[in-house]
Amino acid sequence: MTSVAERTADLMRQAKDALASAVEDMEQHGEKLPPSIEDDVLPDYDRSKFSNPRSMLVPVETAGRALSVNISIDEGLLGRIDEVSRRTGRSRSALLARGARLVIAEEADN
Question: Which residues, 6+ apart, have CB-to-CB distance to 109 below 8 Å?
């Protein structure tokens, strides 16, 4: 995976966001994740393809167990969420999680 940023300070955040999205996609498609550095496995890749490459370790969270949370939300908005949930066949939780992921991805682009 490759990340590019104008400022070095932004690189880790962008790398974390990109890796989290890639891992989430792999999990959703049932793909096996590569071994973790915690398993004492370092990735082997051809560095000659890049000009002056740098490597860094990037932490990422993998899917965990579903948690029940208590939130407050506008009654009208909740009604609209429930309507879209019914129409799309998604649960309220799945719809809210998808919306949160979209906002997180959008923020990562800024």
Answer: none
Provide the residue ranges of all domains of the chain, joining segments of one domain with +.
1-65, 72-110
Give the three-state DSSP class for 43.
coil
- Residue 80, amino acid: R
Per-residue pLDDT 10s for the chain (110 aa) are 566 677 777 788 788 888 888 888 888 888 988 777 776 666 677 778 878 777 777 777 777 778 899 999 999 999 999 999 999 999 999 899 889 888 877 776 66
Query: Is pTM beyond 0.90 here?
Result: no
